[in-house]
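Retro notes
What went well: the complex prediction finally ran end to end.
Inputs used:
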Amino acid sequence: MDDKKSITPKQVAEALNMYFNTAELQSLALNMDIPYDDLEGISRSETIISLVKYTQRHGVYEQLIKAIQETRPYINWDKFSQQSVQESKPAALEKDVTNTLNVSSSTHHITSDEVKLAPSSASQQLEDFYFRVNRLQQQFQEIQDITGLNDEETQNLLNLLEDAPHEFLRDLLSRHDDPTLEQYAQNYAEMEHELGIALVGQGKWHAGLRRFDRSLTIRRLLDNLDERADTIYQIGRTYQLMGNLAEAQIRYRDAMRLYQHTGNKAGIAACNLNLGTVAIQLGFIDEGIAQIQKARLAYRQDDNDKKLQEIDEIMHFVHRVKEKERV
Amino acid sequence: MSTPDDLWAQAGDIFDAWGLSEIPFTESAVELGQKQLRQLFTGRENELRQVFNLVRGRERKRIFVYGWVGIGKTAFLREIIGVLERKAPKTLASYISLLPGMDLSTAALIGLARKLPKDDYAQHLLTQMGLPASQRAVEKKTTVKAGLSGSGVETTEETSPFSRPLYPAASFEALLDRAYQKFDRIVIGIDDLEKRNPDLIRQMLRDEQGLLKSNAWFFLTGHPATITHDILARELGLFDLALELKPLDQTTSYRMLVNYLNSVRPKEKQRDYDELQAVWPFTQDTARELCARSEGIPRMLNRLGSYVLLKAAELGAPMITPDVFQAGVEFADQQLRGQSGLTIEEMYILELVLDKGVLSDESVTLEELDKVRTKEFREILPILDNLVQRDLLKRLPSERATEYAPSPLVRIPKSDPPV
Ligand SMILES: Nc1ncnc2c1ncn2[C@@H]1O[C@H](COP(=O)(O)OP(=O)(O)OP(=O)(O)O)[C@@H](O)[C@H]1O
Ligand SMILES: [Mg+2]
């Protein structure tokens, strides 16, 4: 608790600036119920300052620090007080680009031999890499007048950069057994998953799918099959909303197999319910009803009234459709 | 000992005994000329009738033709385009295959421009895209000699690093206006939508509604899985007719076989469907067996027919008896499975399907997926589709599940007799 108190708002802002890309900031805000889009500030750093101030005003500053520490356990807070963040200068940019892109060949970073010999340094590598990429992202935005790129081009570049740590993490994970790294990966995958759900909730299906896809690629490398199934289920749900029923069906069944393996009753019931509605949408009414009944049974055992009511509404509707068909 | 010259003569002897000038079968309808296609095209009367009834109306329409791999979408589309070109007055009809990286507007633009050889703007557009101008399109294919030794092997490569025009939809509209000064009806057939990722197709159909609603007739083709019936008809209301090509019945398959054989017979030796000799060198039995095994899928009939004739030629068999046919079936199996370039994963998965008879996303178990080193059916889907493209597997036409079975060209290993 003590070290939390010693972290100043300035340090927090700097940490956010360094270690979180814009999407991750949005996700962090979302998880804390902070209206990110409404925060004041035009540039990224201004928005971050507004974010920190917001948490102070609403008494959730400590929670913010906790969230940062959970998602980025490797942050060395002292670094910020000792050396303040260097202002980016265009001249430094070129060097950074080279460093970042050469990360696997430059000596003080990794060579594949080093990686094999010293697996514990993996999280350190990721930290370094993250640090560099975020700084680059920031610099790209700040020097837009110099690069002469328009907004869209800058955004494309930023998106590319955003993918870099993801790919790097994937690569590290598949080659290392490092608990800190795995913890980080787990949090990262969860964050992407949650952000996906939020985006789909706003009707941004493709953006949501992109998030789920990132979460899934990481979760495929981790051991937790329930979480992996959760993401697959959400992908199925998104496709169902989009009307791509064939794809939805495949995903639900994939999720179901994993839930059955782990014995996750809630997961199985959710898959049964949605597979049932997909079947009905495809015109296989009786099969659909049978599958929904399975879900109903499970929810009844759990006294899950909300779900039971949802099922009743669906069944009511289905029976009405069937009646009409008979006429 | 036979010299190569003797062998060549002997091979000729067999074809003489069969009364055929060469093996008539082809894998894809793209390879056929308009004249050949006209001679070979069999059946689909109902489907053609539906389409022609629509086309006779004044109002322009959008038609979607769908069916599984090798069912005859390309043949059907090209036949329609051919009939319209020959018979419909003042009609421009053009066929084009949607290449990877091409959007619908660009495809439509190229298709239209190619049919306007005398229009400067059209030819300018083609040149601008880095494509050969009309008419000379075919001759201009670059021929590349493979190897240094001059082995005589020539491969034709269509190198088309076309550059996309800036506003393909607008260019298309402009060109359409010009074309309508000369024609009363303009029909563009865009083939092979299914070769693209389904989500991309959905997106494309949404984005390019403007194009599809422009003043031209459109025919598009795809797989049922790509764009399902309900999306087409209800959600987008984009198509006036969604036409499914189903497997041919046995009688039609039989007639198709006769047409193929006739196409390589001298004029005076051509036979009617009801003549017993119509399927020679096949016997009635082996001809029916060929049709039955192909399950009404034209590509299967073509491939299997071709393997059987190749084997028969090798055996020097003057007639396709049941034994010769069986040897041909085994030859097909051997050739297909021995295909070079199968990855370890593809081989694993092929074995799994052969083992099970039917692999379904509904009934596959986690243990089985584990064996192919995954935990999700979705991850092996691209591999399954690849195996379908290679004619090793077929996709079953069920909507209830995503199911694959060995193709009729691959023999299922006989399971042990029940105890
Ligand atoms: N109605 C038909 N009459 C005669 N031959 C046909 C007919 N339909 C298809 N074929 C032949 O069967 C083969 C496969 O047909 P085609 O290439 O049209 O299939 P497709 O559905 O377009 O396949 P893909 O899904 O691979 O694009 C070709 O050799 C074609 O000429
Ligand atoms: Mg085709």
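What we learned: The first strand of chain B starts at residue 62 and ends at 66.
What to try next: split runs per interface for comparison.
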